[in-house]
Design goal:
GO terms for molecular function: catalytic activity, acting on DNA; demethylase activity; dioxygenase activity; hydrolase activity; metal ion binding; oxidoreductase activity, acting on paired donors, with incorporation or reduction of molecular oxygen. The chain is an alpha+beta fold and about 200 residues long. The protein has three helices and 15 strands. The protein starts with 6 loop residues before the first strand and ends with a strand. Fe (ii) ion binds next to loops.
Length: about 200
C-alpha cells in the first residue's frame, strides 16, 4: 500500500482508521503553506449553553453545493473549493471510493487554540456520517472518549500529512477534542471532509 501502516484504532462502537503518512512530508508542507495563505480564515462567535464567545481557532467552510453547516448556533455559508482543497479532496476520494461535498477547515494558531469535546452529529450530516480529517503543520493531540462507558478513552498524535477517518457509529458513541497545550508549538491546519447532501 501507498500509505504506511493504516491503523485501525479498534475502539468499541466506533470505526476509526488512521493513515499516518497519507501525504508525504513535502506534499504536506506545500499544502500547509498554500492553505495558510489562501483559505479565507475567520474567527466566529459561537453560543454554547447561552454564552457567546469567540471560537478558540479560525475556521472556514467550503463546499461544491450551497448547503450550509450549522453548529453551536452559527450557520456557515460555503465558499467554492480552491485548487489545493480540490487536489486533497480528490486524493482522499480515490483512496476511499467516497465522494465528499463539503469541508470544514480549522486553523489552530498555537497551543492556546483548541476544539472542545463534541461529536460531529449535526443533522445535516445524516446517520453514521463518514468524516475524513486531514492534518498539516504542528502535531496535536486528539482525544476520544466514549459517551456511555467512562473507562473507554483513546489518544493519538495527529501528524503532518496524516488522515483520520471516522465512520459507522463513531459519532453516536464517542466524543473527540483537540485540547490546548502549554508546549510552544506552531500552527496546525485541519480539514474535515464531510457529506452534506
Ligand atoms: O482538528 C481536528 O483534528 C478536529 C477537528 C474537528 O473535530 C471538527 O472540525 O469537527
Ligand atoms: Fe469534530
Amino acid at each position: 500500500m501507498l500509505f504506511k501502516s493504516d491503523i485501525n484504532l479498534n475502539l468499541k462502537d466506533a470505526e476509526i482508521t488512521y493513515y499516518p503518512e497519507f501525504f508525504n512530508a513535502s506534499e504536506a508542507t506545500n499544502f500547509f503553506k498554500n492553505l495558510l495563505n489562501y483559505v479565507k480564515w475567520q474567527q466566529d462567535s459561537i453560543t454554547i449553553y447561552g454564552k457567546t464567545h469567540l471560537q478558540p481557532r479560525l475556521t472556514c467552510f467550503y463546499a461544491n453545493n450551497t448547503n450550509t453547516y450549522k453548529y453551536s448556533n452559527i450557520t456557515m455559508q460555503p465558499y467554492p473549493f480552491n485548487d489545493d482543497l480540490l487536489l486533497i479532496k480528490s486524493k482522499i476520494e480515490s483512496h476511499l471510493k467516497v465522494k465528499f461535498t463539503s469541508c470544514l477547515a480549522n486553523l489552530y494558531r498555537d497551543g492556546n487554540d483548541s476544539n472542545g469535546w463534541h461529536a460531529d452529529n449535526e443533522k445535516e450530516l445524516g446517520k453514521n456520517p463518514i468524516i475524513a480529517s486531514v492534518s498539516f503543520g504542528a502535531e496535536r493531540v486528539f482525544n476520544l472518549k466514549h459517551k456511555g462507558d467512562k473507562s473507554l478513552k483513546a489518544k493519538l498524535n495527529l501528524q503532518h500529512g496524516s488522515l483520520l477517518l471516522m465512520q459507522g457509529e463513531t459519532q453516536d458513541n464517542w466524543l473527540h477534542q483537540i485540547p490546548k497545550t502549554k508546549k510552544i508549538i506552531g500552527k496546525r491546519i485541519n480539514l474535515t471532509f464531510r457529506i452534506i447532501a
